[in-house]
Amino acid sequence: PLQQMVPPGFRMKTSHDFLRTSRRQQISVITYAPPTPVCCMIFSHGNSTDLGYSAPYHMRLALTCEVTVYAYDYTGYGLSTGLVTERDTCADIRAVYDLARKSFEPQRIIVYGQSVGSGPSTDLACDS
Predict the structure, then answer these.
(1) What is the C-alpha separation between 70 and 54, in angstroms, rounded?
(2) Which of 10, 12, 20, 59 holds its CA 20 to 30 A away from the CA of 3?
(3) How far is CA 32 from CA 56, 61, 126, in A?
(4) DSSP for 69-118?
(5) Residue 31: how many CB atoms within 10 A of its CB?
(6) Rounded to whole angstroms, how far apart are CA atoms 31 and 34?
(7) pLDDT in tens, the chain (128 residues)
(8) Distance between CA 120 and CA 124 in Å, rounded?
């Protein structure tokens, strides 16, 4: 279904995965990858939203900026397991960072946090 959302004439690989965090939770991650990304972005969404609601925005961001976007739901959000805590959100973004590192060098990873997503994003940036 995600691939059906890509506008005609655009090529982009989309995938939905589940990652296991260091706190033993399972989080939902969607990757939007244009053909030749210059870097990637880990997108930590705000409160009162999830991957499904944000999908068109993440796709547009990936296509317009030519970046691979890793979007994820925190523990306790959407299809992710558990109950949300500050510790879990920090473990969540680290699991996504580890995924991004499989394809990108650290200097090619942008960490973006929207609203409540700024907490785990800042925590990761301070430690990296």
Answers:
(1) 12
(2) 20
(3) 11, 9, 25
(4) EEEEPPTTSTT--S---HHHHHHHHHHHHHHHHTTS-GGGEEEEE-GGGH
(5) 23
(6) 10
(7) 565 666 666 678 999 999 999 999 999 999 999 999 999 999 999 988 888 888 889 998 999 899 999 999 999 999 999 999 999 999 999 999 999 999 999 999 999 999 999 999 999 999 87
(8) 6
